Amino acid sequence: xxxxxxxxxxxxxxxxGVRMAALLAKATGARLVLAYVSPPNLLPPHVYAEVIxxxxxxxxxxxxxxxNTARAEAAxxxxxxxxxxxxxAAAEVIADLADDGAVDLVVVGSKGKGAVSRVMLGSVADRxxxxxxxxxxxxx
Length: 140
What we know:
With 140 residues, the protein is of the alpha/beta class. The protein has a single domain, classed as Rossmann fold, CATH 3.40.50. Helices cover 50% and strands 21% of the residues. The chain is built from 5 helices and 5 strands, in the order E-H-E-H-E-H-E-H-H-E. Strands 3-2-1-4-5 form a 5-stranded parallel sheet, sandwiched between helices. Helix 3 packs across helix 5 (124-131). The longest helix has 27 residues, at 49-75. The protein is globular, with a radius of gyration of 15 Å.
């Protein structure tokens, strides 16, 4: 195993995924890649341009905080990692990153919602398992 992609969103299950991935990386000598996916902007750029720029700047700042926390978690296990920030539908973007980046395993946290909640709210982990061509480890 050479590369493990870990999706992070700031949640405790995502950090659990980082810890699990770090243990696997340490045992196999793999490199971790932490990925934060920002939701797409729903407004066209010419509408409220200044507001959109500010929202995007705040989202980048928030994403970097999440990545910093995840990086520190991985470092506590003695594992170094790279970072990726992307924009789009999270499951699809993560699956694309895995396909494009010669990734051997994808790790994602799950908040453990029930079936009704997943239907109503959606689940990135559930969707990722279905759309990703690479093996997916779901941390609960």
